[in-house]
Fold:
Amino acid sequence: MTPTPRRFWSPRTSNEIMSTETHESPNAPGHGDYERRDISARGILYFLAGLAAAAILIHLLLAGLYNYLDKREKARQPSVNPLVSNVPADTRKVPRKYPDTAFPDPRLETDERTQLNDIRLAEEQKLNSYDWVNQKAGSVRIPIERAMDLLAQRGLPERSQEAAGQTVRAVTGAQGRNTKGNK
Structure:
C-alpha cells in the first residue's frame, strides 16, 4: 500500500503531529560537540559595507527623482498675472520675509506654537491685571485672585425678597400670556 501524498489542507492524525521517539545524533547538544564553523568578521564587514553603499545609492536616486519631479512641476505652473508685484520666484513656497499683506485673509498659520503662545500670554495678562473695561461707565477689570478675595470677604450680592418675588411674578405672568396667545 503506497502512502498518499498529504496536502496542506488535509487533516493530520495525532501520530503524524507529535512523535515520542528520540533520535540520538553525534552532533546533538550534550555530546560535547559544537558547531565549528562561525561567521567570519570579514563577511560581516562586507555585508555592512554593501548595506551602506546601497543606502547611499538609494538616497542619491531618490534625490535625483525628486529634483526631476520638482523641475517638471515648476514648468507646469501657470504664469503669474503681470499686474501682481513682488512675487517670489517659486509660488509654491512662501519665503519668510514675504509681506503678510500680499495674501488676503484668512491666511495659513506659519508658526502655530508661537501664535498660540502669544494668544495665551495675552489672555493671562488680561486675567491677571487691572484695566478699564469702560472708563465712562466706571467698570474696571481686576485680577482673578483679587476678585476671589473680595468675594470671600463680602459674600455674594443678595436681592431683597420683594424684588425677587416681583421678578418671579413678572416672568410667570409673561409666560401665562404667551401660552394663552398660542392656544
